[in-house]
Amino acid sequence: MAAAGPTAVLSSGKTMPLLGLGTWQSKPEEVFNAVKVAIDAGYRHIDTAWAYRNEKEVGQAIKEKIAEGKIKREDVFVTTKLFTSFSRPEHVRECMMQSLSDLGLDYVDLYLIHSPLCFKYGTNPFQHAGKLEEIFDDVDYVETWKAMESLADEGLAKSIGVSNFNSQQLERLLQNCRIKPAVNQVELHPYLAQQELVDFCKRNNILITAYSSLGAPGRPKSFQSGEEEPVLMEDPSVLAIANKYGKSAAQVLLRYHLDRGVSAIAKSVTPSRIQANIDIMDFSLSKEDLVSLGQLDRKLRYVGANLIKMAATVPLAALSSGHKMPLLGLGTSESTSEQGINAVKTAIDAGYRHIDTAWMYKNEKEVGQAIKEKIAEGKIKREDVFVTTKLFITFNRPEHVREAMMQSLGNLGLDYVDLYLIHSPMAFKYGSNVFQPTSNPEDIFDDVDYVDTWKAMESLADEGLAKSIGVSNFNIQQLERLLQNCRIKPAVNQVELHPYLAEQDLLDFCKGNGVLLTAYSPLGAPARYGKREADPVLMEDPSVVAIATKYGKSAAQVLIRYHLDRGVSVIPKSVTPSRIQANFDIMDFSLSQEDLAILGGLDRNLRYLGGHHFTTHKYFPY
To answer: What does the similarity note say (predicted)?
Structure first.
């Protein structure tokens, strides 16, 4: 392939020019001329997308340049992208065929999943008048990828890749793919260096392509945060380096990407700028200048900062029952009365779709009332919200399990719960008050085998009263015994979990057996009953605070993200609206492997909520 400038050999074996022309936000009549000017200037990589609505003009320009004899089809590398409303596997080929038809081509050189976010077929998130969550679609991008692989098998795409994926999403894709993604196209520039993502992709032979490489100066208002944002091309450091080399700020920024080993697509429809953007092959930046530009990183996302916040979707886990559970939920322990109702309503408005309660919390009525009100408002449907509650420990005898469930359903005002958990392997006598101080707790212990309790739980699942069933506070040995004696395996084990109590062996066991681990007290239970002054405060740990500062996040946000990045579900509890919102605003970053290792190194086997006055119980789990 004849190309101006450096190229990269992709994992597919194909060669891709590192510098390309971007066509986003280029009007149809302008993009036609822009592509022709670019080809004349020496560009051999043209980037478009179904979403840009300019594939016809891109294709027509290429066709004319081929007719002129300026290029052959094999000389130009064409990238386009699968739109987010075609993410269902059955629609992937349809979108590809539309793009090929518009481009007038038999194949594209690179086809990308435009985003891991999926929207309902036939909708357009950029034109939707209502709330974006109304058109969210629950499609696993791994399933979308399998359909992408079929396009590669057909030869409709020479290479396939993704766009806007983070390292955790890429890692999951790599673990479940037949053809690895060749490219990940993301926003990248000195103000958003994404070094951890760049390093991850390099280690896994995935080429990073930078969009908005110049700081997206022409982005529309819908992609702006609404706050005053610094202009990258006016940054004093960028201008000083440009002056040093006798180049423009734009040329320095494009060279920055190439010298990092990153592909870059620069968008312009102005002939002089198109030419200037490719005239960067006669210099390279020194190591010192690359370091200077790297130090400008402020994790500033120009494109989609506002949309990402609105469209942030909580990752889902496929449970062993076949149902899906949002990995982030609202914990409601000690949230009662009007305060509890308002907390749940605030959470639903913020985007939470997983609410965790329990018979023991004495707030199921409030949780149910809040859900009922939000359904009445049209904010959600019943099937949109995942409700977890738990069997109280005085109902562990098999003959009382259904009674407890029916009480919970009555309190919640629901016909079923999405997840019902045995709250503890320890059973206590029916009708007893386990929270009433007693000189001898053994007086209220009950010798009930949790395997027998589980068989009654299975009957609830058979009836459809619980879509999934699981346990809480079970250790490895108890889980192992349950797995050996169950008909329906536990979908979830909910336990205390945080960096001071990492429970890595338990996590590994659960992952190995298809049991999802859910973390309660993920922030270190700061409001716990019976708090001891000597206990270290997790959210004040210097390592946690340092990592929070690094990402521009709160300690709580870092701790919640820690669980998601370990593949653990998490249910932080709060009744404060600002904290409920902040705890949810963690979808725009991920922790690096190094930071996860630092947090993992804090483990001191410290259990904040241990129930140590029950240590003589036959099934005490700790």
So the answer is: Belongs to the aldo/keto reductase family.
